[in-house]
Design a protein that fits this description.
- Helix 2 runs parallel beside helix 3 and helix 6 crosses helix 7.
- It contains eleven helices and twelve strands.
- It is of the alpha/beta class.
- The strands form three sheets. Strands 1, 4, 6, 7, 8, 9, 10 and 11 form an eight-stranded mixed β-sheet that branches. A two-stranded antiparallel ribbon has the order 2-3.
- The longest helix has 26 residues.
- The chain is elongated.
- The chain has one domain: 2-enoyl-CoA Hydratase, Chain A, domain 1 (Alpha-Beta Complex).
Length: 305
């Protein structure tokens, strides 16, 4: 009886060892999936667009994939209409630091800044119906004088510097100031074109022909050389494995940070609750005014209007 129990115990141990060994062998080659959804900004959250993408989030996940020896390639699923210029550029800088193959899988929309952060990947996969492109930049200075008047707010302006109050939104811009804003916008546009030309290995002149701010379907984008292949997430995974020289990789989905207990119970992030409270207390006009006061300078955007 004891001999039989000993045999059974030994068998169980061997099975456990074999299972662990096979598990480790299967995890030696993995493709990490990173999902980026929403507008792109430094904070990654806004009242009107909800939770989004921010450079810190992307940096953390890319560093995790880079540090994991079992991860041989990365697929980034992009679902975004774009966002602020600086945030998009910071994300691309983080992607440039990664030594492993990066493949982009585009969802329904990967346009403007969503395309910007995709352009320098090793490969871009889009669905035939994906809306992408929209290569361009938009800068806006809201004129809020009418809102101030409606709220009974009077502002006295004192400035040192000829153009210091041009961003305040309290008056019409002069022709000279409009020219300054257009020059600034053109500089950001040139930066976008350069990133696409470098990432896609296209002639800059050709990119400028495509960079009209126009949306393209995935099928059109492939014909123009803006994406490499048509397909879904599995196609991107297969491409990533091929670039890494591996077969039948394990798949690991990287999740965003775990929400707090309070966030889980309420169903919204703390940032979203903060925005809703502001809306309740200040009203829509007050929220717009509050946002403008907290962002006194225009934020040029690689984003769909």
């Amino acid at each position: 009886m004891k001999r039989k129990l000993h045999f059974i115990s030994l068998t169980i141990i061997l099975v456990l060892i074999l299972t662990a060994t096979l598990g480790c062998a299967g995890s030696l080659n993995k493709v990490a999936i990173i999902s980026l959804t929403g507008t792109i900004s430094a904070t990654g959250s806004s009242l009107f667009f909800g939770a989004g993408i921010n450079p810190d989030q992307v940096r953390e996940q890319l560093q995790r994939a880079e540090a994991d020896a079992a991860v041989k390639a990365i697929v980034i699923r992009v679902e975004s209409p774009g966002g602020t210029v600086a945030a998009c550029q910071e994300i691309v800088n983080e992607m440039d630091k990664v030594t492993k193959p990066i493949v982009i899988s585009m969802g329904e929309t990967a346009a403007s800044g969503g395309y910007y952060i995709s352009a320098k990947a090793d490969k871009i996969i889009a669905l035939p119906g994906t809306l992408t492109g929209s290569i361009g930049v938009i800068s806006q200075i809201p004129n809020i004088k009418g809102l101030y008047d409606k709220l009974g707010i009077k502002v006295e302006t004192f400035k040192g510097g000829k153009y210091k109050d041009m961003y305040g939104g309290m008056r019409e811009l002069t022709p000279e100031e409009k020219a300054i804003m257009q020059e600034l916008t053109n500089l950001y546009y040139d930066q976008f074109v350069k990133v696409v030309a470098e990432g896609r290995k296209l002639d800059e002149g050709k990119v400028r022909e495509l960079a009209t701010g126009q949306l393209y379907t995935g099928t059109q984008a492939k014909a123009f050389g803006l994406v490499d292949e048509l397909g879904g997430l599995q196609t991107a995974i297969d491409s990533a494995a091929e670039l890494a020289g591996i077969k039948s990789p394990g798949i690991e989905y990287y999740r965003p940070r775990t929400p707090s207990i309070l966030e889980s119970l309420l169903g919204l992030s703390l940032a979203e609750w903060r925005n809703l409270i502001q809306l309740r207390l200040l009203g829509s006009e007050g929220v717009v005014l509050f946002d403008l006061l907290n962002h006194p300078y225009p934020e040029p955007r690689y984003q769909l209007p």
